[in-house]
Amino acid sequence: MTMTAVSAFLAALGAGSVVSYFVTGAPQRRKSRAEVRRSVLMVERLRMTGANDEEYRDAIREVIATALVARVPRDLVDSYVYSRRASWALTKEKREERGEHSPLYISRDVSQYLVAIGELLVDYLWQPTRTRLRLRQKLRALSAEREALLRQDREGHGDGHFLGLRYWDV
User: Fold this and answer.
1) Between vectors from CA 55 to CA 33 and to CA 111, what angle results, nearest 5°?
2) 20 to 30 A Cα–Cα from 41, which one of 13, 14, 116, 136?
3) Looking at residues 156-168, what average pLDDT do you find?
4) Rounded to an integer, what distance in angstroms lies between the CA atom of residue 20 and that of residue 161?
């Protein structure tokens, strides 16, 4: 069979439309992933600067909405959002305890957990196909790490208790 015959056969089966969908949709998918990246950057900026609650909630909503459009896996987005809500609550509590402009302290373990989830989301946005291959495994490892932080907090050695607050009002 010649290449022309193969392509005609594939077109007759409808495979041509599938190929064109993936080829022409690539720029749009990159654009939507870039929007997620921008919203994540805004959440991180607000988290570090101590913006008000409403601004932060709006930024979180924006991450969820843009991730939905970009077809980012829901469990990855949920892990990111829940960890950032926990970090926000922890930061807010520490600021109330120590004063508005005092330096913040989050334990190294919780900080590493937050960084790992953020890196996984950004890795997915940059290389979705490559990251998707090991996404479930990495999310399970992060979930185990979260449980370890919660266990450590129950024993009185940490500030991971906010990581257990799964369903907050967004």
Assistant:
1) 70
2) 136
3) 54
4) 49
